[in-house]
Specification:
By secondary structure, the chain is of the alpha+beta class. It is built from four helices and nine strands; from the N terminus they run ββββαβαββαββα. A hairpin with an 8-residue loop joins strand 2 and strand 3. Helix 3 packs antiparallel against helix 4. It starts with 20 loop residues before the first strand and ends in a 24-residue tail after the last helix. 14% of the residues are buried.
């Protein structure tokens, strides 16, 4: 990296992490061989602030949100009793009451009706939608769903114990959701106090 005198430059350094959550990088060695490359000066940089490592995305199974959307359209549908269904081919694990048996008798095709009245809002990604999965796996499922919805430009909200993020769309919203999943259940670390290392540590203050 070449930085001219009196100028500054932002540098991005990849820092691997085996776990999600707050991440405080270890010391970073910086050095220079300016101007002729014959001599080298170096020092240690110790970051004071911490970064965030997102959960590792894991493809999520089909799930149903337990969160009810409070939009005007949804309230009107519940008030008037209008239910809408999405028709799709039968998949292993589908409940038999959802199979359209009369249609099966006529055509021989196993078709399933997903009624909106039987499930929560499709705009919500829900921590409680994966019974039997442990916390880390649920967070990985949700991280995958956030990335998938964001890539499609869809509007979605995120619900998990103690916090909810209202439905929205766009990369900023996706990063906010992933950041919330990353630090779920963790305590924010304190900002480290600046410390002097090397020869300056032994110098008397002026």
């Amino acid at each position: 990296i070449h930085v001219l005198a009196g100028e500054s430059q932002n540098v991005t350094l990849p820092v691997p992490s085996a776990h999600r959550g707050y991440l405080r990088p270890d010391r970073i060695r910086i050095e220079t061989r300016y101007p002729f490359g014959l001599l080298k000066a170096w020092s240690w940089l110790r970051p004071l602030a911490s970064g965030v490592a997102w959960p590792r995305p894991v493809p999520a199974p089909d799930s149903q949100s337990t969160v009810e959307d409070d939009s005007d359209t949804d309230r009107a549908r519940r008030k008037t009793g209008q239910d809408e269904a999405d028709l799709r081919p039968w998949r292993e694990g589908d409940l038999s009451p959802r199979v359209m048996w009369k249609r099966f008798a006529r055509s021989g095709q196993m078709i399933v009706a997903d009624w909106e009245a039987q499930q929560g809002s499709p705009y919500w990604l829900d921590f409680a939608a994966f019974p039997g999965a442990d916390t880390e796996l649920r967070l990985s499922y949700l991280a995958w769903q956030v990335a998938e919805r964001s890539a499609k430009g869809e509007r979605f909200g995120l619900s998990f114990p103690g916090e909810s993020i209202e439905p929205d769309s766009g990369p900023v919203h996706a990063q906010r959701c992933l950041g919330a999943l990353a630090v779920y259940g963790e305590e924010k670390p304190r900002i480290a106090e600046p410390r002097i290392f090397g020869s300056r540590a032994t110098m008397d203050p002026a």
